[in-house]
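A sample copied in:

***
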Amino acid sequence: MDLTERQKKVLYCIVKEYISSKTPVSSKRVLETATIERSGATIRNDMNRLMKLGYIYQPHTSAGRVPTDKGLRFYVNELLKIREEIRQRGTQVETVARFPIGDMEKVLTGAAKLLSSSTKGFVVIEKPSPLNLRIKRIVITPVSKTFSIANVVTTLGLSSSIPLSHAEIDDLTEIERVLNKMMSGITLSEFKAKLKTVLSKVSELTDFISENTTKGFIDIVERLSFESYEDYIHVGLANLVANERVREDKIHHLIAYVSSDTFFKELFELKDGIYIGKEHGLKFLEDFSIIIDRFKLEERPLGRVATIFDKYGDYDSVIESFEYMLNRLSEYFTVVSRNVE
């Protein structure tokens, strides 16, 4: 059922006050802070209706009210509307950050630490994948006749070392030369899309490499193309553990889960957006909300950032910090890509 405008104001006030004070909100407090010209009895009736509809609950008799996940969702939706209105009016101040051209790992780690500190949350950054970056060169270093290490260097200076098992090869020089000729200037994802064509025409490659090395070439190409390249930076686990609503008997389960590959997989299966409490469906994290989105190189997505924070946290501040960091990372990678030859 739809809420009246007054009930919406009452609900917004309850959520905002609870986020600020972390104590149940009374009808008296609503009257003191909200611009509502009504009696205490009217406000209490509105609060009872909000309870029946599942937006708030009363921890115990005579206590004030606490917002549920449904109430928090209403609040966040209203907050996003307000932020969008401000953005459309053009009153938002955009601050330009100057990033040095440096170690990408340090930049991402620094961004994660700053975001974790400002949101009091657990931050996970998905590193840019070589699949989405243009290849500068590939260097293959032989370890034995059947095992090598391929180092893929991209336009952002990001390199990825990939172990390669292959058929016996005496000399990798020809294969390295052909790979660089075929892959320089394109992305690994583009090369992956062309893999079937490459393999179907492998017989033509004998103009460049000997028949004895053809099998080794196929092994290496397949390994490069199907590498997953998943890697993450994460900071702020202590912020989750320190949350007063996380029971002691649950802490070790939470730590084990967010340290597992399953967690990263399930986290980044979520679509971009804000998830409150149980909405995200991640185990042991129902006391937390998640905001997740992607940073870009110009308009091309490079990676994603997720912040997990107290579901009764300051959403306005968290969203502000999160959007700022996304913009700065996008700006950084765009600047770096234009400066790296």
About this structure: Residues 47 and 111 are 41 Å apart (CA to CA). The radius of gyration is 27 Å. The domain at 130-225 is CATH 3.30.390.60 (Enolase-like; domain 1).
